[in-house]
Amino acid sequence: MGSREKAFQFLREVPRLSTVNLAKLPGISRTKKRGYGQNGKERGWGTSARQKMHYGPLGYEGGGTPIQTKPAIERSYNYGRHAVKQFPPITLENLQLAIDTNRIDASKPIDLATLSCSGVFPIKPDKNQFGFNLISNGMDNFKAKVNIEVQWADEQTIAAVERNGGKITVAYYDLHSVSALSAPLKFLRSGVPIPRRLTPPGNLLHMYIDPAKRGYLADPALVAQERKVLAQKYGYEAPKYDDNPELFEKNKDPRQIFYGLEPGWLISIEDQTIFKPKEEQLKQMYST
Amino acid sequence: MLIRGIRCLQLTEQCSRNYLTLTRFSSAYKSPLSLDKLYPASSGNAKPGTKDVSSEFSGQIPMNELTKTYSCSSGPGGQNVNKVATKVDLRFHVESASWLSPGVKAKVLEKYGSELTKDGWMVVKSDRTRSQTLNQADALEKLRTAIRSALAAPKPKFSAEEEERIRKGKLKAARERLHYKRIRSDVKAQRSGRDQML
Question: Does B27 reach chain A within 8 Å, measured CB to CB?
Answer without folding.
Answer: yes
